[in-house]
């Protein structure tokens, strides 16, 4: 009994350490792999959850995303502005974001980074080694007014 009790903590410690940092899980019951597109979607959704993030992607990728949303069956552009590099145990994430005017960009970047790291690590088991954030634009409240259709129509 003493031998099996001593072996259990070592095995449990090794299992706990392995589960925190793995992409491919090979066990006696099978193997689990996670596609990089899954990590990309998780990171994009996590970044959008933070108040102050107006959109992801640069102007061109946002335009393509808006066009893609209008095509039936094309789905939404959850991965616009998100690039990932995924290895066996680690991932790196690059985000292009547009922030709302008036938001403290440094604080916003910290919150986005923290949320992306937490979400990706919790959902995939990968260790996120870095989250690089590029702020490409600031969204102004007047931008919404310009894109809204005019309330008074010339033709009825």
Give an account of the 3D structure.
The protein is α+β, with helices and mostly antiparallel strands and 156 residues long. Helix content is 46%, strand content 25%. The chain has five helices and six strands. Strand 4 and strand 5 (90-100) form a beta hairpin. It starts with a helix and ends in a 9-residue tail after the last helix. Residues 1-23 have low confidence and may be disordered.
What's this entry about, in short?
This protein is an alpha+beta fold. It has helices at 2-20, 36-48, 59-70, 105-124, 141-147; strands spanning 25-27, 30-32, 53-56, 82-86, 90-100, 127-139.
- What is the overall number of helices? 5
Note the main sheet: 4 strands, mixed
The pLDDT mean sits at: 77
Secondary-structure element string: HEEHEHEEHEH
- Note the overall shape: elongated
Quaternary structure of the protein: single chain
In percent terms, what proportion of residues is strand?
25-35%
Spans where pLDDT lies below 50 across 5 or more residues: 1-23
What's the β-strand tally?
Answer: 6
């Amino acid at each position: 009994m003493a031998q099996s009790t001593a072996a259990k903590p070592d095995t449990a410690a090794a299992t706990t350490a392995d589960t925190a940092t793995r992409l491919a899980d090979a066990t006696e019951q099978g193997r689990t792999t996670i596609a990089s597109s899954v990590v990309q979607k998780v990171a994009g959704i996590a970044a959008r959850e933070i108040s102050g993030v107006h959109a992801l992607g640069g102007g061109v990728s946002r335009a393509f995303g808006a066009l893609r949303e209008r095509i039936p069956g094309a789905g939404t552009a959850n991965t616009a502005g998100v690039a990932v590099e995924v290895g066996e145990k680690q991932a790196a994430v690059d985000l292009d974001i547009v922030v709302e005017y008036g938001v403290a960009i440094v604080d916003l970047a910290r919150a986005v980074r923290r949320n992306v790291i937490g979400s990706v690590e919790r959902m995939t088991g990968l260790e996120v080694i870095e989250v690089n954030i590029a702020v490409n634009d600031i969204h102004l409240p007047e931008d919404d007014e310009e894109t809204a259709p005019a309330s008074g129509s010339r033709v009825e």
